[in-house]
DNA sequence: GAGTTTCACTAATACGTATTAGGTCCTTGA
DNA sequence: TCAAGGACCTAATACGTATTAGTGAAACTC
């Protein structure tokens, strides 16, 4: 009776393996074995096999993916949990290439993605642990975003749930795929020094993220290795005080500025505008370098068409590698390196030149 | 013994209702009833209910969507199937705002999204029906993309699976949320006519998509209503022959060109370049109008900073409305209009002006 | 010709949740 | 004191497939 009413409601009911079994005169198990492929050492008579295949074809059988996944432990779905909206409003958002990489690799590996949209509500209710816990519906999960509620994540670590963070993390035991900012940032400073700059400033945002800390560390490392004075080297900004900062630096004889590029891009935008307002030529009057222009969103230098000098963050590759690592964790591969830093590609660009001969000094 | 070995193998197993039941000292059925909500006329003691809820919280229980789906038919997950990569390589891709709208509304409705990444392989294997079939793990599915394999879709219609197409479709019975291009396109022509133009051309791409057909229909409608000659009005292009077309039109005394804007943007890009090479001033020498600039990607007119005149496609709202419609279909709402066209917002822009007094005629 | 293998398949059960049909106790009314 | 009813919960089963253990029969071994 229930069956009949369901058939009425949904038109013709989808044929199942048991229907095929009835038609072909075999058991449901035989149908499953034949359609799925016999595991090993199992043999089915050629004729029976054909009868089942014919019946399946005739009935228009389609396996139910839900049942398939219930029966086998995996569901070939990877979670993607972002701590802001996944599709940001700002098209030029720097997250974007990472997501593209994630999708690309997931598709290549035959995995679907579950986008957890709880972010908005989770943010509203301040760290609702249930929101993060929901990711367990997937085989594993990728986390992405600068600011993360730590408590729910720790919970996942404890439970042994497979997940990978995109971006370096400080917490022990958290697998991640990040960018290797330290050497890349040091190398940018080295390039400025090689071009003749001795008075350099580093403009960074007010931010506690590991990515920011690493860049600063790299800049300091590069400065020390070149024998530069690191006092006053680092200047945090919110993007609004750029004019004052720039004026001060020019007065001090600064010839090059390194800028941190993050998802908001506030520091770079602020400085770029200030350079424009001051009527400075770049790189004629001032050399600029950017730490981590987002691939595909690469800003244009104030002067004209040339790209900023600095390095690119391998966003796409981070996304891809995170998927690979996650799948290894899910599979339980023992030898996998669970904390990975990918190298950043240097960008030649056109915003570094030799400094003008200093007036005071000559 | 089996349980124990599995626990060892996979670390700690995900908690199930039966685990909660054991902890709380009730049956699995009671757990399901309490967590899911008692149907009607069922009463559970307040104290028992609390014990179960506490145990669930303590164990970090999350319902298995696959099992949920198999047993009932809801899992609060909507599928999103795109017939190209979901995160396109081109950041300025016009699909983007639609996806943002989908995510926004899904989050608002407490639904997660399943991104089906089969697209790549499906495209490779030319219309593999299995790829589309995967969507059935979700409660319903959104389809998005200009070119769609029709056969698998028809299959879903037959099976009564709830889905919504983003973009108008010709096939009968397919629910969709699209943009109402016909009146919007006609209105653009009317605006040109009102500005004094009588010789107009419409540049469209070689494309069979309904969206293209609708725009052309609207342009023709607008032309007829203004009493214009529609012969030679429509010109398809691949973007490469723009110089020749433009030259011919100028010789004919054409004073305004309407351009179709699609996801590739080839037609507009080609014409814009041709206008530049011909040294024409827009709108001084030639008025331009664009049918459907993508929100957020709005092109700039060749002359300078002004936006193209024309209309905007309500991409974001289409995404949102598609989610709403899909949820209605899933809920089985009887009165829902299943085929919706949203109005396009006119864009004033700066590329329409009165035509120069024609030389030949005067 | 008793024992062993191989073949070809089936029975049974797991996967995790939803749902329905009861089953116990406890209170209440007559 | 017995029946009726309600409150509270459990047993049983369904959902559709995967998988393992096992079964009967034929074929082979010595």
Please tell me about this protein's structure.
- In chain A, the strands form 2 sheets. A 6-stranded parallel sheet of chain A has the order 2-1-3-4-5-11, covered by helices on one side.
- In chain A, α6 links the parallel β1 and β2.
- In chain A, α10 packs parallel to α11.
- The first copy, chain A, is an alpha/beta fold and 362 residues long.
- The first copy, chain A, has 3 domains: 70 residues, Orthogonal Bundle (434 Repressor (Amino-terminal Domain)); 131 residues, Rossmann fold; 133 residues, 3-Layer(aba) Sandwich (Rossmann fold), CATH 3.40.50.2300.
- Chain A starts with a helix and ends in a 15-residue tail after the last strand.
- At the A-B interface, α5, α6, β2 and α7 of A face α5, α6, β2 and α7 of B.
- The first copy, chain A, binds a DNA duplex (30 and 30 nucleotides) through α3 and α5.
- Chains A, B: InterPro entries: HTH_LacI (IPR000843), LacI/GalR-like_sensor (IPR046335), Lambda_DNA-bd_dom_sf (IPR010982), Peripla_BP_I (IPR028082).
- Chains A, B: It comes from Streptomonospora nanhaiensis.
- Chains A, B: Keywords: DNA-binding, Repressor, Transcription, Transcription regulation.
